[in-house]
Design goal:
The chain has 60 residues and is an alpha+beta fold. Helix content is 30%, strand content 27%. It is built from two helices and three strands, in the order E-H-E-H-E. The protein has helices at residues 18-26, 42-50, and strands at 4-9, 35-39, 55-59. The chain has a three-stranded antiparallel β-sheet with strand order 2-1-3, with no helix packed on it. The longest helix is centred in the middle third of the chain and has 9 residues, at 18-26. The N and C termini lie close together (10 Å).
C-alpha cells in the first residue's frame, strides 16, 4: 500500500449533496484541479470513497 495519496478535485461541487461538499472541504480541496497530498489510511480511503465521482486519486 502506498504511503501517500495525491487527491485532485476534477468536478465541481455545485449541485452536490451538502455531505459531499463538507467531505471535499475536509480533504482540503477548495478549487477545481487543486491537488493535496494526504496519508494513505482507512479514514482517508473512506472519505474518498464517498466523493469518488468528484476526485481523482493517485498513489505516491
Amino acid at each position: 500500500m502506498a504511503k501517500m495519496l495525491k487527491i485532485t478535485l476534477v468536478k465541481s461541487t455545485i449541485g452536490s449533496k451538502p455531505q459531499h461538499r463538507k467531505n471535499i472541504e475536509a480533504l482540503g480541496l477548495k478549487k477545481l484541479h487543486q491537488t493535496v497530498e494526504k496519508p494513505d489510511n482507512p479514514q482517508m480511503r473512506g472519505m474518498i470513497a464517498k466523493v469518488d465521482h468528484l476526485v481523482k486519486v493517485e498513489e505516491i
